């Protein structure tokens, strides 16, 4: 426990007079006196943590790692619920060069209520090192809200953005603006928050306000380009890119990647590739731009070219801990157990899990663990993949006992992709009894005996261009059908409007299915349906993982079309089970919906 924390402990009411005096000496940096007093405490009351905590704090102040470890370990033994003991352990372990155990101790300290700024910073940097930025807010969020440290707020916002959790990042982007609205970086974050909450006109107005006040940054130009693109003003976005005199290299790189997306929207793959390559050559830094270029190449089935770029989605610090080579066949075959670290959202993980069949991993002779959201445990029960699901928080505490070669990022399995289309067998096996029970309930409400499931929106703020109004998704559904709502979140107003617009349809929002908390129930619900019509979101990946026989996917054009689906064709190249209906040009859903209507009419015939 460093001296800066001694005052907090001293006034907490949890210590006696002798301990208070020892903490005061430590806070005053009078280390000899603090050690002498603490030694007396450990002799008189070895069953209390205070003496050990002061000794540990003094050892940290002297950079004596082994001594600090010894004292804080004893403090944690006699008081396992003491946050300061685990806080000290985290710092001592980091000082001794053991980031794995340091991370576990830091998470324990934060979970038990520590709000020390230094400890939070250590935890966040270690989480980024291991590539787990996406869940940093779970343990660190309370502490950061409490101390409102602007550096930590911005660090967390950027980490969540880098981990593809833009919705979670919005809170921290806005908090940065709230804490220090005069700072240029806070203005950047405020603009990005407006963009991620789809307030595109407000974002453009804010950018204009900053520009007129002389506060506009190069970063804001990229945000303004995104707002213009989202509202279909591609020419204005490209003109802004061409005319702005960029000074910040990273901001130019981001803006160039937005230009690449615009060129894809316009159907110009050659110019998109040129923009990506320009952005990539400007810096070798990892992150979303090389990942996006890798996905661009994957979409065109240029797999070997895309692999090195896609691999750079993980920072070099993370690669030192979990190497890309860990996914190589010779390493996978040699391991008795393998821990697959989930990446991105539920849908992406389901897609990537199908690649396990193409690897040398064998559940009959190896222990295979999926480190991810614990909701996966029920939905993967009975799966032929033979996976045991472990929550990330649990694995954090196990890291010290795991050989680094046993850990593989799930996304690194893309090396097993082949240029030809795939036809993997289903990987989800929902409970047949539950499926039958759900189907019986729905048939009782289906006027013509046909049961449709529909989903029309994605909760991901950067997936706005995939979304459609519910009324448009319903247009191809034949009269007399039962429509089962597969959309998560509160959308009662949309359902009410759809009932009024389509009185010829029956609607069900099933209160027994909560896909946000019960993935197994959601899979059983989909398996009970005759037909699914959905935009590209988690729903279609569950359909694909089930091998659902009649699923129709509405796909946007350009970069918004996920690379799994390839660049053309109606046949699903990933699961081999879905029917794809693509926009022929940016914003044109009419042709895609007409294609769905024709397919459904053919099914009915």
TrEMBL record:
Chain positions of TPR repeats: 49-82
Top-rank taxon: Bacteria
Protein name: Uncharacterized protein
Alphabetically ordered keywords of this record: TPR repeat
SUPFAM superfamilies on file: TPR-like (SSF48452), UDP-Glycosyltransferase/glycogen phosphorylase (SSF53756)
Record-linked InterPro entries: TPR-like_helical_dom_sf (IPR011990), TPR_rpt (IPR019734)
